[in-house]
Structures are given as structure tokens and as C-alpha cells.
UniProtKB/TrEMBL annotation:
GO terms for molecular function: ATP binding. Belongs to the ABC transporter superfamily. This is Dipeptide ABC transporter ATP-binding protein. It holds the Pfam family oligo_HPY.
């Protein structure tokens, strides 16, 4: 609810003045048991920071994160560690996220050891179970991460994330570093695991093409804010925000007859240090009006439940979600 994460940075080496990076700037959403929520946007829009705020790897500057009714932001470090058993992460880079000096067995058992779960024997048993669950085998336990391909390393990361029987797994660009053919295998594995263990996923990606195979609902982020949120059907088939439309126009369609005119966005995402006034998207928006430069649109729920932050939506039935 209204989560903000602002980082102070030094303006220059000489002066003491600081500036603020508004990485996440007032984000609110629900996450329902068993669903996959996609969080999509270009790099630098705050997705990874949001992911780390959810499981309190980073504490929010403002706002609250509730899990089973508990406000995580109010918990002590020790209490947060306990909650983190239930909210695990799979990171983007399967090459960097595994300690090269540890065997695969040590890496997968590590969460059990850290949290003091079970005896040495039961931890071993769980290890072999996990290896099988992610499509590896007992023989892999004694080997080191460098002996594995990118896809296999991501399987090792997933096994680690599953070790403590989590409720939620936050996947931060889990397949972005992998070849397209391997991406599909890892996505299918994640889907199978979700069915088997009733997992809830937050699936973060810059790629709407990857998200389309995974997500029940999607939040589109731009410059630290959610600009549109809706079901798979709403976002892919009836996008309302000009930014979502532009992102989708870059996604190849299955049939060439479906291919729509591609909207090329000029320029990069503006810096979160000095975000432009008004609508954060106005400098790149093909539909911008004069008022967009001054007044920031709020995220408003439409009659069909879709949430959109854009002045073009203002004549529809309104219920403000956040300011
Ligand atoms: Fe574009 Fe204006 Fe809508 Fe922002 S508020 S997305 S600039 S039309
Ligand atoms: Mg990121």
C-alpha cells in the first residue's frame, strides 16, 4: 500500500547536497494466493526495487507491505528473516547468483541450514527431492555451478527457492539471460511447480512476450509508478494506457494479419532523480495533451476493474486508487 522507495544520492563529490532517486514512488496492489502477477516495464522503472521491497530485502521509505495481515515494514530484522521463508526470490542472472565455490548440494541445502530446518539426514533427503523436482538428479549434487548451463543453473536457483516450502516466489527477470529455447523450458517448469505446490508468483520482466505465457494479471510500471493494471485479457487485448499500447506494439504477434502498426517510443525512460512534472510519460507519449505536462494522472479503476493512470480515461467512472 502506497509503497515508496527513495534513495538519497550525492549531487557531486565536493558538495554535501544530495538528490533523491525515486525508484518506487507510491505503488499499491493486491497479490492473491495461487496467481501469477506480472510486473512489466523498461529497465530502470523500479521493478527490481519493488521486488526487493516486497520481501523486505530493501525496507520501504514509506508505505506498508502486508503478508497474511502482518505489516512487514514494522517487523524486526529477526522477524523479517522468518517471513522470508515464505517469500523467496529467483534472480535474473543464473551465472552471478550462485556462489562458485559451493557445490550444488551445498547451495540448495543452504536455506535449510541457515534457518535450522531438520537434521543433516533430512536436509540431504530434501536436497535429492528438490533436484528431482526441478529436473536434475542426485549425481548433480557434488558438482559446481560452472559445470552447468544457464538453464540448469536457473533450475538450481529454483530448487533453492523451493527448499523452505515458500508461499510466494518473486522471479526477477528469471529467463532474461537465457536463450529463447531454454526460456520456454524454465517457464514450463515454473508453471508445473505452481500447480504442484500452489505457489504464488510475482513475475518481473521487461518482456511482454515472456509474461504472456505466465501471468493472470499484469501491472505495467513506468518511472516508479504503476500506470496500468489488469487481467491478462485486459492488458493484452484491451490495453488503455498509451505506454502499454506502445510496449505491446513491439511484441510480435502469432499471425502476420494481426500485426498492428508499431509505435516506436523515442528516447529513454527519464531519470528517476528528476522525474518530469505532470504525467511521467508525457515526454514520450504519442497522445500527450497540454494538461499532461502539468497534472499527474492518478491510477483510476475503470468499470471493468482495469486500473489506468491517464487523463484520456477521465470521462469513465472513477474511483481513485492512489495519488
Ligand atoms: Fe499520455 Fe497524457 Fe495519458 Fe500521460 S496522461 S499517458 S501524457 S495522454
Ligand atoms: Mg531489474
Amino acid at each position: 500500500e502506497q509503497v515508496k522507495k527513495h534513495f538519497p544520492i550525492k549531487k557531486s563529490l565536493l558538495k554535501r547536497e544530495t538528490q533523491t532517486v525515486k525508484a518506487v514512488d507510491g505503488v499499491s496492489f493486491d497479490l492473491f494466493k495461487g496467481e501469477t502477477l506480472g510486473v512489466v516495464g523498461e529497465s530502470g522503472c523500479g521493478k527490481s526495487t519493488l521486488a526487493r521491497v516486497i520481501n523486505q530485502l530493501i525496507r520501504p521509505t514509506e508505505g506498508t507491505v502486508h503478508f497474511h495481515g502482518k505489516n512487514l515494514a514494522g517487523l524486526s530484522a529477526a522477524e523479517v528473516r522468518k517471513v522470508r521463508k515464505h517469500i523467496q526470490m529467483v534472480f535474473q542472472n543464473p551465472y552471478a547468483s550462485l556462489d562458485p565455490r559451493k557445490t550444488v548440494g551445498q547451495l540448495i541445502m543452504e536455506p535449510l541450514v541457515i534457518h535450522g530446518v531438520g537434521t543433516r539426514d533430512s536436509q540431504k533427503k530434501r536436497l535429492y527431492e528438490l533436484l528431482e523436482t526441478v529436473g536434475l538428479n542426485e549425481g548433480h549434487a557434488k558438482r559446481y555451478p560452472h559445470e552447468f548451463s544457464g538453464g540448469q543453473r536457473q533450475r538450481i536457483n529454483i530448487a533453492r527457492a523451493l527448499a523452505l516450502h515458500p508461499d510466494i516466489i518473486i522471479c526477477d527477470e528469471p529467463v532474461s539471460a537465457l536463450d529463447v529455447s531454454v526460456q520456454a523450458q524454465v517457464i514450463n517448469l515454473l508453471k508445473d511447480l505452481q500447480n504442484e505446490f500452489q505457489l504464488t508468483y510475482v513475475f518481473i520482466s521487461h518482456d511482454l512476450n515472456v509474461v504472456r505465457y505466465m501471468c493472470d494479471r499484469i501491472a505495467v510500471m513506468y518511472l516508479g509508478k504503476i500506470v496500468e493494471m489488469g487481467t491478462y485479457e485486459q492488458i493484452y487485448h484491451h490495453p488503455k494506457h498509451p505506454y502499454t499500447k506502445a510496449l505491446l506494439s513491439a511484441v510480435p504477434k502469432e499471425s502476420p494479419f494481426e500485426q498492428k502498426q508499431r509505435t516506436i517510443l523515442s528516447g529513454d525512460v527519464p531519470s528517476p532523480v528528476n522525474p518530469p512534472p505532470g504525467c511521467p510519460f508525457h515526454k514520450r507519449c504519442p497522445e500527450a495533451m497540454p494538461s499532461c505536462q502539468e497534472v499527474a494522472p492518478t491510477l483510476i479503476k475503470q468499470t471493468n476493474g482495469q486500473q489506468v493512470a491517464c487523463h484520456l480515461m477521465n470521462d469513465t467512472e472513477e474511483e481513485a486508487i492512489c495519488h
